[in-house]
Each structure stands twice: as structure tokens, then as C-alpha cells.
Amino acid sequence: MKFCSNCGHNVRFAIPEGDDRSRYLCDACGAIHYQNPRIVAGTLPIRDGRILLCRRAISPRMGYWTLPAGFMENAETTLEAAARETREEACAEVEIHDLYTLIDLPHINQVYMIFRADLIGDFAAGPESQEVAMFAEADIPWDELAFPTIERTLRHYFHDRRDGVFPLHIGAIGLQDRERYFGSA
Amino acid sequence: MKFCSNCGHNVRFAIPEGDDRSRYLCDACGAIHYQNPRIVAGTLPIRDGRILLCRRAISPRMGYWTLPAGFMENAETTLEAAARETREEACAEVEIHDLYTLIDLPHINQVYMIFRADLIGDFAAGPESQEVAMFAEADIPWDELAFPTIERTLRHYFHDRRDGVFPLHIGAIGLQDRERYFGSA
């Protein structure tokens, strides 16, 4: 951020009076521009013990497999966001059960929320997917998953499935986990 | 948003090519300025069956009672945000258990995440609180609560406490619930 989105003046990055962290400040109009984490909402769509995955047609991680998920939009709920992303990326409808993984990525200011869901009806690749397919546990392409959040969600699921109990898993993924996927660049 | 925060040019509000909703667009530098919901993280601090509430010293809803909660910041986790807000507003430390309520407010682009927690040690009013106090169920100031998210979280808790089971409650609060608190202005 270089310019005030309210008045167009230059902004500076400094701690406002009464605050304890730096913000983008406009000395012309007085605006303080807060920046906050974004929610990535998605689903773990299941049918007959198999999981729906999408092969990404867009960067980042084009060609790698992911659960349907994306940035939550204004004016929708988390459940609506998760269902919409599933519709957009996999042309699929889901019946959503519980929130299953809540994963913080503080180094990139994201919070993943993946809901366990039953896949309903047909599916097909949406514009952001090269391919959409169902995978049994033995066939999951572990080395070709797009993001560590996806790997972690799948590992929780296959572990929990043995007991048939699916509690919410809260966790965080740091730079180390991320570098396994993306390198240190 | 009137000006591009990247280059200072005027923005327009229109649907970008390949998208399906309006964004703030800069024709000069090509930036697309996405806007997304913000997370409000907080705790339900409990000790000896009583709940810690804070009387707000700032607007909105100054003078009304709330659970300690506030906007999650970049570079922190949801658990860190909930604990930090509790420390700032009630000068209190907590041992956080589970995520207890996840409440969407799509009309104001917020997602509340309140964690059930044990209150540890002392407490006192932080700079954003007029007063901090512990309340038994019979003493909760139901007519002086700051936000419908707080009322709903407390009602879930006192209901669940009878059975000793505290599942995650996912819900949404719309304009109607909000108008009970704020009027239709």
C-alpha cells in the first residue's frame, strides 16, 4: 500500500497513537488502513469412502491436487463460501456436516476452514480446475498435493475414519511446513 | 475506496473479466482490490461456573457488556488473537479449550470465533473496558449485552452446561437479530 484509498495522498507505515503495531496511515485525511487475515473456506467432499480432489488450472500450484477451497467473499457465510467454492471448482453440490479443520497460516495471513461434506450428484472440472476426480485412500497423490493445509486435512480424515469420529482439528502451519511444498523462495 | 492504494489513480467498481462480482479496479496499474470478511476472535473465560464479561469503554456499544473479543491481526493465529484480546480487554490470561461458537455476520462482513477457556489468575479493566467482572448465570445482564453474538454464545453455554457437553455451534446472525440491538439505523 502506497496511497490512501480514501483520498489518494501518500501513506506512511507507523504506529498510530494508542495502538501497538504499525498501520498504513494517511496524514491528509486521517484514515488508518487496517489489514487483516483472510479466510479460505472449502470442503472435504466424500462419497462411498472416496474423496473429491481438483487439479488446479491456475497458479499458484497449477497442476497440483487440492480440495475445493478459496477466499471467502464479503456478504456470504462461511458455509456458503465453502459450498460456492465447491460449485465453482468442481461443479458439485455438497451437504455440509461439521467444520473439520481450522488451520492458521500466520506467515501469509490466511485461516483455512475446511468442512466435512457429502458429495451429492455429478461433478466436473470448473474453469479453475484441469480435472476433478474421486480418490480412495490408497490412491491419494500425496506427492502432488497443492498445499500443506490439504495434506493435513486428508491425513486427519483417514486417521479419524478408523474410529468413525471426526472432531474439529485446530492447528497452524508455519514456514517450515510451507517450504516443503514451495521451497524457500 | 476511491483511489488505488498501489498507484493513487481513481478506481472504479465493476466486474473484472472472468469474475462474477464487482471489485474496485484500477485502470492505470491494473490492480484489482479484493475485499474480504474479517475475523473477530475472542474467549468465553470461565472460573467456578462464572463468566468474565467486560463493559465496553469504546464505541460501538460503549457501556454495554461483552466477552473479550476483537479483530484478528495479520501474523497471528486465531488462538493467539483470542488470547491477546482477552489480555488487552481484561488483563487476563486464559487456558483455551475448544472453538465454541462460529457465527457469521454477512451483512457486516465479519466472522466471530469464540473459544471456551478457563480464566487463570487475576483480571482488571484494560484501556478498552470500563469494568471487568465475573457473572453467575442468574446475574448475566441480558438486556445490557453489547452484541447478538455475545448473547448467543452465552445462551449456548448455559444450555450446554446442563449436559456437560460443549459442541461447536455454527450459525449466522442477520439484520433482524442485529436490529434488536442497534435499531434499524
Summarize the structure.
Chains A, B: Residues 36-158 form the Nudix hydrolase domain. Chain A is α+β, with helices and mostly antiparallel strands and 185 residues long.
Can you walk through the features of this model?
- Chains A, B: Residues 36-158 form the Nudix hydrolase domain.
- Chains A, B: This is ADP-ribose pyrophosphatase YjhB, NUDIX family.
- Chains A, B: InterPro entries: NUDIX_hydrolase-like_dom_sf, NUDIX_hydrolase_dom, Nudix_N.
- Chains A, B: It comes from Modicisalibacter muralis.
- Chains A, B: GO terms for molecular function: catalytic activity.
- Two copies of one chain form a homodimer.
- With 185 residues, the first copy, chain A, is an alpha+beta fold.
- Chain A has two domains: 1-35, Ubiquitin Ligase Nedd4, Chain: W (Single Sheet), CATH 2.20.70.10; 38-182, Nucleoside Triphosphate Pyrophosphohydrolase (Alpha-Beta Complex).
- Helices cover 19% and strands 36% of the residues of chain A.
- Chain A contains three helices and eleven strands; from the N terminus they run E-E-E-E-E-E-E-H-E-E-E-H-E-H.
- In chain A, strands 4, 5, 6, 7, 8, 9, 10 and 11 form an eight-stranded mixed sheet that branches. Chain A has a three-stranded antiparallel sheet with strand order 1-2-3, with no helix packed on it.
- The longest helix of chain A has 14 residues, at 148-161.
- Chain A starts with 10 loop residues before the first strand and ends with a helix.
- The mean pLDDT of chain A is 96.
- Chain A binds chain B through residues 1-8, 10-11, 18, 21, 24, 33-39, 71-80, 98-99, 102, 104, 106-107, 109, 111, 127, 168, 170, 172, and chain B through 1-8, 10-11, 18, 21, 24, 33-39, 71-80, 98-99, 102, 104, 106-107, 109, 111, 127, 168, 170, 172.
